[in-house]
Each structure stands twice: as structure tokens, then as C-alpha cells.
Design a protein that fits this description.
177 residues, globular, mainly alpha, Endonuclease III, domain 1, DNA_glycosylase
């Protein structure tokens, strides 16, 4: 999002995310899982709302420990739905738990969630969207696009004249290979 490069720098929440995370390649499965879940939870809300609740999400979902989240049962679901620190949406909570289980399967089949993404890269956005819809829950076009941009699989996180863009290019993100 082009205007993000103008608005984010210096902002207490957007600034650090814009400058240190957004668009940089990610190969850690827990971080990839976190980004996917944050993007899912952003649906219908502002990104600022999600960033402000990020620490609460990390606590509520055991640091985005994929194995732990995948085994959540009824008690954990109710705990999450009663946690005012996060976005208490049943569909999003269910998608998070379900998607953790899917990622465990992808890890078993490909070695890691990151390896699964690498296996399918490069794909055009429409094909990524179809793949995510077949694989995960609650992954519409905007969620998939933002997830892939935020983790370095698609370009567009920063304008070419944004100073962060040069730092991202130096890391050789998947989209620039």
C-alpha cells in the first residue's frame, strides 16, 4: 500500500512494523503463522487495531506455537472467545485453530510451512488465492495478498522510493528472485 510508506514512519505501532517487518522475507514457521493469523483477524477492521492487540494475540495463542494451537479444544476456544485483549470472532478463532492443524500437516509433508510456500513460489496472485482457499480457512483475496506481501512472496509492500524497499531488496525476497 503506497501511502503506508508515508503514514507509517514515526507512528508508535505502524512505524516499527513498516520499518522492520512488512515485506521482509520470513522463513520461521511461527512468524509465518502469526502473520497469517493477524491478517485473518484484520478482516473488516483496521490494521492499527490488530497491531495494538498483537501482544495480546501472542499471549492468547501461546506465542503462536503451531503444535499447541492445533490441539486447542473447547476450553481454549471459550477462553479465546472471552479474551477481550484479542478479536473475539468465533469464525476467526476457529480458523486459527484449524489452520494450525493444516500447517502441521504441511510441515509433515514439506518439512516446514516455509518450505511449502517455497515449493509453490512463484505463483501469480490469483493462483496463490486459489491455493490458499483450498488449503486454509478464512483466506480471501485481500488476506492472501497482504500475507504474501508482508512475508516477501509478493511485491508491493513498499514504494520504490521508500528507504525500507532498498533494505528489503538487499535480503533478496522471494518475489525479487
Amino acid at each position: 500500500m503506497a501511502d503506508y510508506c508515508d503514514q507509517a514512519p514515526g507512528h508508535p505501532f505502524h512505524g516499527p512494523y513498516h520499518d522492520r517487518e512488512y515485506g521482509f522475507p520470513v522463513n520461521d514457521d511461527a512468524v509465518l503463522f502469526e502473520r497469517l493469523i493477524l491478517e485473518i483477524n484484520q478482516a473488516g477492521l483496521s490494521w492499527l487495531t490488530v497491531l495494538k492487540k498483537r501482544a495480546a494475540f501472542q499471549a492468547a495463542f501461546d506465542g503462536f506455537d503451531i503444535d499447541r494451537v492445533a490441539t486447542y479444544g473447547g476450553v481454549e476456544r471459550e477462553r479465546l472467545l472471552n479474551d477481550s485483549g484479542i478479536i473475539r470472532n468465533r469464525l476467526k478463532v476457529e480458523a486459527t485453530i484449524h489452520n494450525a492443524g493444516i500447517i502441521r500437516t504441511l510441515q509433515a509433508e514439506h518439512g516446514s510451512f516455509h518450505a511449502w510456500l517455497e515449493h509453490h513460489h512463484p505463483l501469480p496472485l490469483d493462483d496463490w488465492i486459489k491455493l490458499f482457499k483450498r488449503t486454509f480457512r478464512f483466506t480471501g483475496p485481500e488476506i492472501v495478498n497482504e500475507f504474501l506481501m508482508s512475508t516477501g512472496y509478493l511485491p508491493g509492500a513498499h514504494r520504490d522510493d521508500c528507504p525500507v524497499q532498498a533494505r528489503i531488496l538487499a535480503t533478496e525476497p522471494p518475489w525479487a528472485r
